[in-house]
Amino acid sequence: MIEPDFFEILLICWFGLAAIIFITLFFITAPYGRYTRTGWGPVLSSRTGWILMEMPAAAAFALFFFLGERTTGWLPVFFLILWEIHYVHRSVIYPFRIRSEHKITQATVILGVIFNLGNTYLNGRYLFTLGPGFEHSWTLAEKKNPWFLLGFSGMRRTESPPIWPIPARNAPHE
Fold first, then answer.
1. What percent of the chain stands above pLDDT 90?
2. 103 vs 159, more confident
3. For 135, how many CA atoms within 13 A lie in the half-sphere containing its CB?
4. Phi-psi domain of 97 (left: phi exceeds 0; alpha: psi -120 through 50; beta: other)
């Protein structure tokens, strides 16, 4: 099987799995943070779990970039930087801002790693090797399509690295 065929099959399965998980989570609460409970296997600190779950996504995406065939120009570098800001924040900054002593199950961490690596493969290989390449018409440079600006502005609401100061979500009330 050649990689584009594998990629397409994985993508279809990924969407199917997402639908199954979406429905399942209405009935089963994922066992992490305040919802950790017995019966899901050994536990570790949330800090360690977050680092182990999120760091592979940062490393693998960078690897796909450096091995990729379409990495010249500002747009691939921009996507790499956005991805790395997000996942370095999730794996290095956020875990050390956690003030709770909640635990996370090893099963949750393993499933998180699998999800992150699958998601990283699909995004990284599409952007830097298997996709059609980059058209600049939908980016900020052309200002013709609002989807780019909408997606980029959404990062402000969901991220809080030091370059965009946002109070910690679990900071004590003053």
1. 49
2. 103
3. 6
4. alpha
